[in-house]
Every structure is written in structure tokens, then in C-alpha cells.
Design a protein that fits this description.
The complex is a heterodimer of chains A (about 280) and B (about 180). Chain A is an alpha/beta fold and about 280 residues long. In chain A, about 40% of the residues lie in helices and about 25% in strands. The N and C termini of chain B lie far apart (about 35 Å). The chains are: A alpha/beta (about 280), B alpha/beta (about 180).
Chain lengths: ~280, ~180
């Protein structure tokens, strides 16, 4: 078996370039969903707001300026093939350097300590999740996460008796509490199962799935459809001024859990969902 | 719907004429300040020190702009979540602030304080930061430069688009959603 050598410099350049691109250009799947939503939005003000957001995306891309001033905290998911060896340095350091370089012309939104709150000045550190997978490929997904929506995200360790109805209540309650704060139209990531730590990560992973792609498990795909319909019946609408475009998609990710619990986490993404994926080429 | 044009600083008549749901265009000088700047201003007040800017009749915009591209006066500059500034808002009203621009819910206490102090809360469209920045024609850091994106900025705006959320009559443009059974 061959071990594939990958230079951390190559990873650094690729991640930096992806982050810069994400700041200026919103994903095609999101823009397509927004165009559909604007055609269907019955609220006049809601429709105007969707138009403004689409105009904003087009203007930012043409001018090569960020779509939103909050270019977020960089969250990186690395799927690393087990036949890969990283060379030419420290991979974590390379990822930090990629973030530092990418954010040179972007807003620095990271503080070094949650209580002392000193701006780090370069938007580092990123948040990095590693997963080891078979093969010799490296896939990296970057999420530039705005914190208006992050702040309204919630987690609850429910007893199993609450069941699917309890899950629905909690998700709807989270979206209601978020209201205009999370900058709807939203993407709603729901994590189910695992443990206290995993359920939050599942909710975050739900946000990086291609928009509107259903969960492969039929009962979870059904839950996604039902949640999306219920959320869009709340009449929160674009920016909270009423309408049926409160969420563009609900994604549910699930994992095995303990007989004693039904963990549920809801992670919200805003109207600037900067998500992108790359594969490290030779 | 008609769009009203307003110029800062606001008079009591200006704020009294506004109703929740009105679309407005704001021109004049406004002050950009968010979490850390509010913390410092309130600490200064508690120590009896003067404020870095005279806020009488003024409008505070909850914003932490992105850096400006060369040739631009400011980077993208959309609203941040207003509710985080609720703990500081009464002190700002006591300084004579007549308007706040942000996004999202205010607490019931702040909505009541807006009525008492005769001030209006406006929302700008969150996520439309690049377009909103086009309405800002000048930007100058006037206090706390060490806070970087959280410094207080004097911003000159022209026809800055906003929506009246909470007026001085207790009106609220956001729908009230009941949570819990």
C-alpha cells in the first residue's frame, strides 16, 4: 500500500483561497433556493427583503467585497484518508496560517478568551474537526459561521419519552426564540442522538450538507419536510417582518444514542450561509 | 408603502411621527457602536467620566464593519443583533439617544423605555451589508480605536434604508410568537 504525501503548504493555500472566495460569493445552491423563495413569497416587504439580499450577493461578488460584515469564525471539517501523510510542517499551524491570510482583508471577529475578550487581531484560531476515513484523499469543508445565528442555537438532553413530537416542539421553539435575530431566511441544522458533545456537532454538520438534499433515511427525510413546513407556517418571514420564507431548508443528522436519552441540538445558519468544500489535488 | 426621509439629529417631533412598520431613509451623521464600545461607555458613565461623543438627539447603529477595500470609505456594514445591547440601552437613552438601528428583538423593558424616553428602534436588513455600506459616505473612528471592529465610528449616511420596529407609541413591527405550551 502506498502512502500519499501531501504538503501542508498545499493545504494552507487551498484553504485560504476557499475562505476568501466564500467571503465574497454565496453558494450557488443557496442563491438558487433564494430565487425560488422570492417568486413564492406572498409578503410584499418579505419579497423586497429577499430581492435586497439577492442584489447584495450579486453586488458583493462583482465588487469582490464580503457579502456580510460578519465573516464569522472559520470552522473547518477535514476528512483525511488514512493512507495520507502530511509533510513540510505542522498541519494545525498551516490551517491557522490559512485563516490568518484569508482574513487579512476581512473583519477580525475572534477574541482570545470568552471572559477576557481580547481580539486576536487575525481571526485565529479556527475551529477544526478531523475525521479519519479510508483511502488517500483529503476533503475539507469550510464554514464561515456568523454568530448572530450561532447565538440563537440551542441544545437539550431530552428523555426518550418526548419522542419525535418533543423534537419538533424544541426545533420550533428555537426558531421562534430566534425570530429576526438569526437573520432569516434560515438554514436549520438539527442534530439528534449521540451524546452531549456529539449532538451539537451533528447539528453543525447538518448545516454543511448541500441545501435541501434530504437525509437518506426516510423517517428523517420526512421529519425534515414536516419541520420545514411547520417553520414556514410560523409567519416569521424574511428578517422577521412576516412571510412564508423563514427557512430555506431543514437538515437532520442522527447518530446512535443511549437508552436513557434523546439528545437534540439546533444550529441555525443565517441569510449568508458561507459553506464550501474542496479536495486536495496533487 | 411610502418611504419617509429623516435627517439626524432627530427631534421629538421626528420620533413621534414614526410608526412601527414605516419604511424610512436616514441621512446625516450616525454613530456605529456595538458590544465592547457599549460596555466601555457604560463603565465610563458609572465612573462619572464624560462620554466620548455627545449623543443628544443622535442615532446609534449597532455595527462592526468589515475593513474597507481600497477606494471605499468603509467595508460591508450591516446590523448586528440589538438584543445584546439591551443591558446598556437605558443608559444610552439617558444620554439623549433618539434612535437605534440594528436587527432582532428588544426586551419588553427596552420597548417600554423607548416609550418613556421617546426614542425609536429601527431594523436594517441583516445580511445586506455590502449594499448598506453604499449608503455610508464617510467613516471616522472617534473613540476606542483599540477595539478594532468594535470601535465607535462616526458615519455619514445618505438615504440609509431602515424599517421602524418599535415606535414611541408602543408599536412593534415584529410578530409576537408564544413559546411553550
Amino acid at each position: 500500500m502506498m502512502i500519499r504525501q501531501i504538503s501542508v503548504n498545499r493545504v494552507q493555500d487551498a484553504v485560504r483561497d476557499l475562505l476568501i472566495e466564500l467571503a465574497y460569493r454565496l453558494p450557488a445552491d443557496y442563491l438558487a433556493a433564494m430565487h425560488v423563495a422570492r417568486e413564492e413569497e406572498p409578503s410584499s416587504l418579505g419579497g423586497d427583503i429577499l430581492t435586497m439580499l439577492l442584489d447584495n450577493a450579486a453586488y458583493a461578488e462583482a465588487e469582490r467585497i464580503p457579502t456580510c460584515q460578519d465573516t464569522g469564525m472559520a470552522i473547518l471539517f477535514l476528512e483525511v484518508g488514512q493512507d495520507v501523510h502530511f509533510c513540510d510542517g505542522d498541519l494545525n499551524q498551516a490551517l491557522h496560517a490559512a485563516v490568518e491570510e484569508a482574513y487579512r482583508d476581512l473583519r477580525k471577529s475572534v477574541v482570545d478568551d470568552p471572559l477576557l475578550r481580547r481580539n486576536t487581531g487575525d481571526n485565529t484560531p479556527p475551529i477544526i474537526h478531523y475525521e479519519i476515513v479510508p483511502g488517500d484523499q483529503v476533503h475539507i469543508t469550510a464554514l464561515m459561521k456568523g454568530f448572530g445565528a450561532e447565538l440563537m442555537s440551542r441544545l437539550r438532553m431530552m428523555p426518550p419519552s418526548e419522542g419525535v413530537e418533543g423534537v419538533k416542539r424544541f426545533v420550533l421553539e428555537t426558531v421562534k426564540l430566534a425570530g429576526p435575530n438569526a437573520c432569516p431566511p434560515l438554514i436549520v441544522g438539527v442534530g439528534l442522538g449521540g451524546s452531549f458533545d456529539t449532538v451539537a456537532l451533528l447539528a453543525k454538520k447538518a448545516l454543511i450538507r448541500p441545501l435541501g438534499e434530504p437525509n437518506p433515511q426516510p423517517h428523517l427525510a420526512q421529519l425534515e419536510r414536516e419541520l420545514l413546513e411547520s417553520i414556514n407556517d410560523l409567519d416569521i418571514g424574511p428578517q422577521g417582518f412576516g412571510g412564508m420564507t423563514t427557512a430555506l431548508a431543514v437538515h437532520v443528522e442522527a447518530y446512535a444514542t443511549h437508552i436513557a436519552a434523546l439528545p437534540v441540538a439546533v444550529n441555525l445558519n443565517c441569510s449568508a450561509p458561507r459553506v464550501g468544500k474542496l479536495r486536495i489535488e496533487d | 408603502m411610502d418611504t419617509r426621509s429623516l435627517t439626524t439629529p432627530f427631534t421629538d417631533d421626528d420620533v413621534a411621527s414614526l410608526r412601527a412598520g414605516d419604511l424610512v431613509r436616514i441621512s446625516g451623521v450616525i454613530y456605529g457602536a456595538r458590544d465592547a464600545a457599549h460596555g466601555r461607555m457604560v463603565e465610563a458613565l458609572e465612573r462619572g467620566e464624560p462620554q466620548p461623543v455627545d449623543l443628544r438627539g443622535q442615532v446609534i447603529y449597532y455595527v462592526g464593519p468589515a475593513p474597507a477595500k481600497p477606494g471605499h470609505v468603509i467595508g460591508p456594514a450591516g446590523p448586528t443583533t440589538s438584543g445584546r445591547m439591551d443591558p446598556y440601552t437605558v443608559q444610552m437613552l439617558e444620554q439623549g439617544v433618539k434612535g437605534f438601528i440594528g436587527k432582532g428583538y428588544r426586551s419588553d423593558a427596552i420597548k417600554a423605555a423607548l416609550v418613556t424616553y421617546r426614542a425609536v428602534y429601527f431594523a436594517a436588513v441583516g445580511g445586506a451589508a455590502a449594499l448598506l455600506a453604499r449608503h455610508i459616505t464617510a467613516s471616522r473612528v472617534v473613540a476606542y480605536p483599540d477595539l478594532g471592529p468594535e470601535a465607535i465610528r462616526e458615519l455619514t449616511v445618505v438615504d440609509f434604508p431602515a424599517i421602524v420596529v418599535n415606535d414611541v407609541w408602543g408599536g412593534d413591527a415584529y410578530k409576537k410568537l408564544e413559546v411553550g405550551d
